[in-house]
Amino acid sequence: MASNSHATERSNLTKRILSEMTLSKGRDAASEARIDTLHPAARDSAAGRFSIAGNAVVTGGTGGIGMVVSRAMLQHGLSGLMMFDLNVEASREALQALRDEFPEAKIEAREVDVTNEEDVATSVTETVKLLGSLDMLICLAGIVGCAHALDMPVSQWRRVLDINTTGAFICAQAAAREMVRQGNGGRIIFTASISAHRVNFPQPQAAYNVSKGALLMLKNSLAAEWARTGSGTQDLEREESVWEDGLAGGAGWGGGDDAE
């Protein structure tokens, strides 16, 4: 039952459609022909700047965005990938397709509740045993909880913040502890949203907006505290379910500026 509920919440994350909302039809960018006008030298230079080495953990990894992010990192050289999610079995075929596409990489998945400290700590330890190190954490696990504030149960408010914000902190803390132990630094990336800056009216999602706004300050706070350890944090922001700028600039996902 919990897995089905999680799947429904994940689906709602990309829809957020209520009866009072009027949406445009938009356009299907994927179906439009792309003209590659980039000079080969520039293309090679860009690929070099966005090369990724080492091993990464992606929370919410078997979801739609998680799969896209994971594939992009593997395309740019990631050697080891561990996906944390609540229902790994539901994405078994997609996982195998990813393994078939990148046979040289070690790709694993593990059922993890990001709100459970012990579960996360154990999973990070097991990840290091399997992959050899933990160099990046990408926090994508999240839900919306779209409901009018007058009607929203406090339990729903707490659940959204527990998964989106506290869950991100729990995972970041566990990953940072391992990165400090390794002594090589690392990267921790949160997924914020335009909703962290502006209220995307008319969808009533106060809890979601607050949870994403809190992630921005969490990123800044952890970056200040952990800079001396070599563990950097940053956030990527998206408009609904569409990545705006993709990866933030800088070699190896370096730098701490928001990607807006």
What's a concise summary of this model?
It comes from Trichoderma arundinaceum. The protein has 260 residues and is α/β, with parallel strands linked by helices.
Structure report:
The protein is α/β, with parallel strands linked by helices. It is built from 7 helices and 7 strands, in the order H-H-E-H-E-H-E-H-E-H-E-H-E-E. The protein has a 7-stranded mixed β-sheet with strand order 3-2-1-4-5-6-7, sandwiched between helices. Helix 5 runs parallel beside helix 6 (154-182) and helix 6 runs parallel beside helix 7 (206-226).
CATH superfamily membership, which one?
NAD(P)-binding Rossmann-like Domain
CATH topology (fold) name: Rossmann fold
- Major pleated sheet: 7 strands, mixed
Q: What is the CATH-assigned architecture?
A: 3-Layer(aba) Sandwich
Query: How are the strands of the largest sheet arranged?
Result: 3-2-1-4-5-6-7
Distance between termini? 37 Å
Structural class: alpha/beta
* H-E order: HHEHEHEHEHEHEE
Strand content: 15-25%
Dominant shape: globular
What integer value in Å does the Rg equal?
A: 18 Å
CATH class: Alpha Beta
Query: Could you give the count of β-strands?
Result: 7
Q: Can you tell me the residue ranges where pLDDT is under 50 for at least 5 consecutive residues?
A: 236-260
Number of domains: 1
Summed up, the helix count is 7
Percent helix range: 40-55%
> How much is the average pLDDT?
79
